[in-house]
Amino acid sequence: MELREFNNQVHPTPDYPSPYGSQHSLRLRTVPPQETSAVQFDWASPPEDAEDSNEPPNLRELPLHMGLKRAVWQVQQMKIPVVSSSWNIKQSQTFRRFCEVAKHVLSYFVLWKRGIQKIGGHFGGGVQSYFLFLRFLVILNFLSSLLIAGFVLIPSIVFRSMNFNSTIPTTVNLTGVEICLQYDPKPDTLMVFITYFLDLISGTGFMEYSYLFYGYYTNFNSMVESNGFSYNIPLAYLLTAAFYFLFCFICMIIRMGGTARVAVVTGGGATGGYSALVFTGWDHGLQEDRTTKLKQSNFRYRLQVDLEEERLKKKSASLTLSQTVSLYALRVFLNMVVLILIGATFYGIAKATQFSQLMKTTGFKGLVLQYLPSMVITASNFVVPLLCDKIALLEKYSASTTVILALLRAVFLRLVSLGVLLYTLWEQITCEGDISKQNCIPCNYYYDEYKCWETRVGQEMYKLTLFDFLITIATLILVEFPRRIVVDHCSCKLTQWVGRQEFLVAPNVLALVYSQTVVWTGALFCPLLPFINTIKFILFYFCKKITLFQNCQPATRNFRSTTSNFFFLLVLLFGWMLATMVLLYSVTKIHPSYGCGPFRFSPTMWEVVPQAAEMLNSTSAEFLFYMGSQKFSIPLFIFSCVLLCYVSALTSVHGKSVALLKSQCKLEQRDKQFLVRQIEELNATVQKEQREPQQPQRETDTATRWNQHDNYAFDRDEDPRPY
Length: 723
Hints:
Domain TMC: 452-561
Region (Disordered): 1-29, 685-723
Strand order of the largest sheet: 1-2
Subcellular location: Membrane
Transmembrane segments: 132-154, 190-214, 234-255, 262-282, 328-350, 362-383, 403-426, 461-479, 518-543, 564-585, 632-653
GO molecular function: mechanosensitive monoatomic ion channel activity
């Protein structure tokens, strides 16, 4: 429309027909005159793809300007619908309004909404993604705590208060294992404060025999029955742990699906993102100056990331063959250096764990020895990723690729270091996998050293969680605040060169993943660990927010938050898989402790499941056994493979469709650019003609041209004046 009006202003249409064709549009000059291309709207006819639909067309999908859309909407409001469809339309509108109101009300209950928006405005989407990830873990741990409390903790407290203590089943043969039943961790009634503090820090003494650890649930090793009510604590304990892991997995998959959709829509890069950010990214509902400035800052940081990545892509594309080969050779060498550092770290963790488990001392020295594996793991998680980050700068990747690579290296270090710790513990508990050794006879585990090995593993996870929290608080108080004070009040060149610290997203995210993996690993042996982790993450939020605004400066190198959010959850999924392997190995392979826990009279923890299934009626038992047999698992596996192939093919088709639509959008953009260039050239030509001095014209020219158009009633070669 605007192009047609502009052309008419430059070349007005004559009042008589022209043999050169219509001049209505630039693209219609070479074609015969056609009817007007204005959009015609049939007020009564329904859309073509909605033959049987009684609902009005969606005005947002119609290619009309706002004035015409408003007129269409007014006509739709004036139409009187059929009575049968009026009720359906009103119901759908009422339900839609209810959903919008509910969504608006629930938005007020979003945890830390305003604080996270403020962080995103000041420090960009990358730092904001860390706090969104932290909020997700807080909610996940809180819901998991409710699950464990509802099925394990509260029933145990109720049954213990009512003195419902189970007895040893008569079918259990304890001949020759009487020594394995001895386990009495109850401390003395009177103890000094320092002993109380050491027990609180290390999880021993009064903490060892509490609801915090596995060993306290000893009295409930069979079904509790009273007045027709029965509750199987061992089965509830095991199934709660299983559903806890399943619940966390489902939550991660759902969140990964949402972040993956965002990454696919944005294309995983800056291509096509500028237009979406500039023209559709602004929230026109913002009214306060503070929120407007935060939104502008967020846009500025996102554009910085896009421009930086585009610059690096162009630079990498301009490299010669020799430069590319040398670059890849350098990256291979640096990766070998990183692997050597990580291997040395694993060796140190294994030796520290063995030394800590063999030494038996008390007091402060004993506390240091108990925390020795945690100290080595924490020190390695601080030093080695720092060296890897410096090495990654030499590899000359883009900002987002550097962050993701550092993330993968750090997660490999943290998760495998935790795996090395657990593997060392399993070797000592199971006598290096050979239960026929002297140390593992007759209890099938190393009883002299681990009278209740489940509680010992839970104590290690408890110490790792607590030590990680203490290190974070100590770093905040002893390192970050003093550094900010020195930088702000000292004008020497060294302090100004060091400057305030930057909030590095990758190490902080890995710290959260590591903490959550520790919680998953120890949840079976320390049921209250998710609740402790919830409190820890809440304190983390406020500590990190304080240090972010008080001690940190915006990062000089930003990265894209859309792809990073997906990688954060992917790394968290790796931690979940490691914890799941620990859970399966502990449940199916290692003999439970005879002296503690609800499974002490079972050969493995898993045995309580078939025992509970046998107590059901024959039909239910046969169904459950069939579900766990190969007759069901093999067809299920085949069906899953077929479904996976179908989804993969469907994803490929959708990807091709998206690529085709993107190419069409690019072609349309090129057409628009061509038309804009045509308009600019035409405008320049008109302005040039207007600036040229008017030359004296002959009378013949005046007679043959009217309003800058030729008079076709006369022939140029003949004299128009007959007389």
